[in-house]
Amino acid sequence: MTRTDRQRWLLPSHLAGPGGPGAARPRRTVRDWVVDTTVFLLAAFFGLLAADTSARYNGDLVNVLDQIGGALACCALWLRRRWPTGLAAVLAVAGALVPAAAGAMLAALFSVAVRRPFRDIAWILALALAGAVATVFVRPDPETGAALGIVLGVSLTLMVTAWGMLVRARRQLVEALRERADRAEAEAELRAAQAQRLAREAIAREMHDVLAHRLTLLSVHAGALEFRPDAPPEQIARAAGVIRDSAHDALQDLREIIGVLRAPGEDGGGDRPQPTLATLGALVDESREAGTEVVLDTTVDDPGSVPAATGRTVYRIAQEGLTNARKHAPGAPVTVVLRGRPGEGLTVEVRNPAPDGPVPHVPGSGQGLIGLSERAALAGGRLDHGPAPGGGFALVAWLPWPS
């Protein structure tokens, strides 16, 4: 059931269409025909009972007029979806004069109570109550008496109105619960989409941090082979070995990330351990083997005491700094400084001077530094980068180290 269809439970037919007031009245559904026919038959049944009772103490002409008035009132119920308020008001007056129209009046009152709030139907209810009292005196029934007739008429009118208001309240509650469920489902889908987006961003940052270092080695050494085809065989063999090892390690890292994607519920997601501060020395050695002069200055005597998440962030920062230095300042020495103690935090610096010769063009987007800034912020720290005062480039980060 669409939202427009659900609104037809609470609004009259001429207001329930997609266009609102003034729009074309929607056609009756099968359910509408069943309900309208049932209401018509019930109103006709009660009208016949009232006409039969009235025939006992009224003349033939009055009985004929009662039957005609009751039939017209019952037929008018087919208009209750288009003019519920006006029809209920007219039948409230007619019910006071024609007992056979009482059933149609109650049906119209019930319909308007279902479709309108109480403040809009209070005057119709008052008119119906006045008609229920007036009919006792206009068309008295000798068998019931005035007091009993007033009690029966007022009670029946109030009961039908309360029933209609109860149906309206229940439909509003169902509609509110349905809208709340739809909204909750939409919010859940939005949260799932946001979680997927964040996961993709995290995976993209991780792939950049892991693979950029390896691929930079490939690019630098492949470029050296391209521009130095006459290099000694030892240098060519060494560069080829670095290219082979870097390609192998890049494939291993890529398999690890793909393993995380295939089994997101597992910690680690791969066979290879995650880097920590204890593996920073291996990273420096790898860069030295690739031909970069790297100086590691650290005061952290026990890398294993550093939290794993903090150590991994320091490793990624140093890895990105070494990668950028190899890209944009080939041949320049790089200094990695690590300072800190529990309770004071951990500071890592990666500095390199400006290169002496021309810098080969190596493509880069700067996404690595952006990812590192986000990674440091998530860890509760900060990261600064930019040209150093004496020339070159500096990458400085501070991370919390709980005591």
UniProtKB/TrEMBL annotation:
Domain DUF7134 residues, every copy: 31-171
Region forming the signal peptide: none
Transmembrane segments: 33-51, 87-114, 121-140, 146-167
Keyword RNA-binding in annotation: no
Signal transduction histidine kinase subgroup 3 dimerisation and phosphoacceptor domain sequence ranges: 200-265
Catalytic activity of the protein: ATP + protein L-histidine = ADP + protein N-phospho-L-histidine
UniProt domain Histidine kinase/HSP90-like ATPase: residue ranges: 312-401
Record-linked SUPFAM superfamilies: ATPase domain of HSP90 chaperone/DNA topoisomerase II/histidine kinase
EC numbers for this chain: 2.7.13.3
Coiled coil: 167-205
Domain of life from the UniProt record: Bacteria
GO CC list: membrane
Keywords carried by this UniProt record: ATP-binding, Coiled coil, Kinase, Membrane, Nucleotide-binding, Phosphoprotein, Transferase, Transmembrane, Transmembrane helix, Two-component regulatory system
One annotated GO molecular function: phosphorelay sensor kinase activity
Pfam families attached to this UniProt entry: DUF7134, HATPase_c, HisKA_3
Database matches in PANTHER family: NITRATE/NITRITE SENSOR PROTEIN NARX-RELATED (PTHR24421), NITRATE_NITRITE SENSOR PROTEIN NARQ (PTHR24421:SF10)
Official protein name in the record: histidine kinase
